[in-house]
């Protein structure tokens, strides 16, 4: 995808690609969960719970209020980064070149979330940031993923399982529900599903071992300092 984009863009647009690509990574690197945990509780979220700097672990360790805050901001990171495509050239929203740019910037933001430069490259799993990116690229497919996530979550109360199944539904919904045969979008959907599964390897082991924690959004969180 990247080489394809590079081939069709002129020198000025290549400079824009580089600048906004770097900015997308830096936006994705904003460690929302760590900022919230240190700012309100004086702890590093990565030293508690699952050890991930993401919304799910924030829900688990700090409670619903702060989990929602982290989740919303992390979603906005991916959504904002993907929309940097509006600043490149004069492409029309939804056309192939524009979608390819959204995918590039969105993926860079997800990489930033997983490997944030600000906190030693130890971030979260990128699911919320990834969802923000999908919202920007394909809103109907994002809606299907959310619906599937909620069904699995309320049925099993496993956030990890819900995230993985929702990710698997992305390429399925793009190809078989909305009949979108755009090559890079399909490849993106498949790669994202694989990435989410790979980043949840430990969760898969715990699921099969019967040791995975279940979500309980009504759980009391620790008091603020």
Provide keyphrases for this structure:
disordered C terminus, mainly alpha, 225 residues, globular, 2 domains, 11 helices, 0% strand, single chain
Structure in words:
This protein has 225 residues and is an all-alpha fold. The protein folds into 2 domains: 1-137, no CATH class; 139-215, no CATH class. The chain is built from 11 helices and no strands. The protein has helices spanning 2-8, 11-28, 32-41, 55-62, 64-82, 96-114, 127-137, 139-156, 159-177, 183-199, 201-209. The chain is globular and about 50 Å long.
| SSE string | HHHHHHHHHHH
Cα-atom radius of gyration: 18 Å
Q: Tell me the overall shape.
A: globular
Beta-strand content estimate:
under 5%
What average pLDDT do the residues reach? Answer: 87
The proportion of residues forming helix, as a percent range, comes to: 55-70%
Q: With helices defined by DSSP (H or I, 4 residues minimum), what is the helix count?
A: 11
Poorly predicted runs of 5 or more residues: 221-225
- How many structural domains? 2
Number of strands: 0
Cα separation of the termini: 48 Å
Question: Biggest β-sheet: count, sense, barrel?
Answer: none
Estimated structural class: mainly alpha
Give the secondary structure arrangement, pairings included.
Blueprint lengths: L1 H7 L2 H18 L3 H10 L13 H8 L1 H19 L13 H19 L12 H11 L1 H18 L2 H19 L5 H17 L1 H9 L16
Task: Describe the structure in brief.
This protein has two domains: 1-137, no CATH class; 139-215, no CATH class.
């Amino acid at each position: 995808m990247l080489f394809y984009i590079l081939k069709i863009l002129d020198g000025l647009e290549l400079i824009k690609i580089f600048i906004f690509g770097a900015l997308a990574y830096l936006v994705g690197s904003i460690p929302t969960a760590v900022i919230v945990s240190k700012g309100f509780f004086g702890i590093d979220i990565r030293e508690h719970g699952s050890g991930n700097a993401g919304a799910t672990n924030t829900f688990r360790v700090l409670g619903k209020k702060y989990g929602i805050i982290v989740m919303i901001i992390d979603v906005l990171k991916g959504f904002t980064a993907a929309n940097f495509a509006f600043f490149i050239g004069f492409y029309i929203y939804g056309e192939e070149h524009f979608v390819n740019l959204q995918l590039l910037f969105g993926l860079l933001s997800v990489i930033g979330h997983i490997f944030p430069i600000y906190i030693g490259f130890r971030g979260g799993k990128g699911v919320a940031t990834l969802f923000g990116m999908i919202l920007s690229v394909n809103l109907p497919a994002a809606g299907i993923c959310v619906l599937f996530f909620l069904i699995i979550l309320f049925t099993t109360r496993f956030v990890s399982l819900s995230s993985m199944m929702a990710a698997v539904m992305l390429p399925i919904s793009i190809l078989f529900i909305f009949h979108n045969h755009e090559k890079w979008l399909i490849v993106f959907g498949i790669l994202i599903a694989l990435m989410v599964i790979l980043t949840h390897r430990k969760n898969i082991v715990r699921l099969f071992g019967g040791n995975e924690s279940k979500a309980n959004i009504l759980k009391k969180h620790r008091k603020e300092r």
